[in-house]
Amino acid sequence: MRLEDYLQPDFVIGELVSESKPDVLAELIAPMKARWPDFDDARARQVLLDRENLGTTGIGDGVAIPHGKMENLEQIVIVVGRSLKGVNFDALDFKPCRIFFLVLAPEHVAGLHLRILAHISRLLSDESFRHAFMSAENDAALWQVLTAAA
Q1: Could you confirm whether 67 is annotated as catalytic?
Q2: Any bridge partners for residue 67, and if so which?
Q3: Closest CA to 63 of 91, 103, 25
Q4: Which residues lie closer than 8 Å to 97 by C-beta, 6 or more apart?
Q5: Which residues 6+ apart lie within 8 Å of 30 measured at CB?
Q6: CA proximity to 43, closest of 35, 33, 58, 31
Q7: Distance separating alpha carbons of residues 100 and 87, to the nearest angstrom
């Protein structure tokens, strides 16, 4: 499984400016709305907030993996963001989140959706990957880190 199968360069945000969970989610959704003008960004925000209400996707070590399933979505989409200052995302370890992997999937691909989430979780459990991710100097370098990851 390769991240670039579901991630595109314009879906990588090297410096998130948002300072709250709802604003980070909106900022992560924005590239999808820019790419697909008919994309229902309001529905996507609601799906993600509903998932957050079930339990935080801030898993610790500065990482959050907001995710959800949407009807009318044709493919799994990953958007990656980085917050240099960190955002309170109600993480399990109570620390700010700096690395965000948003995953939206169509309703009918539950198995693949879970495999992608597991792959991202394994990748983000690697301290050297997290360090390289946070140390990337620009969006192009960040893309290189992401595509070099197995």
Answers
A1: yes
A2: 103
A3: 91
A4: 58, 62, 63, 64, 83, 86, 87, 88, 89, 91
A5: 41
A6: 33
A7: 10
CB atoms within 10 A of CB 110: 11
Phi, psi (rounded to 5 degrees) for 15: -145, 95
Q: How far apart are CA 8 and CA 113, in angstroms?
A: 17
Please name the residues in contact with 111: beta carbons below 8 A apart, sequence gap of 6 or more.
Answer: none
Report the greatest alpha carbon distance in the chain. 38
What token pair was written down for 38? 């008919």
Angle (deg, nearest 10), helices 41-54 and 21-35: 150
pTM over 0.70: yes
Distance (Å, whole) CA 66 – CA 46: 12
In the chain (150 residues long), the average pLDDT of successive 10-residue segments reads: 85 96 97 94 96 95 95 92 96 96 90 89 94 94 88
Reported in sequence order, the residue ranges of the chain that DSSP labels E, i.e. its strands, are: 12-13, 58-60, 63-64, 67-70, 77-87, 97-106
- Which of 67, 108, 119, 131 is the catalytic position? 67
Q: CA distances (Å), 30 to each of 7, 67, 121, in order?
A: 14, 15, 23
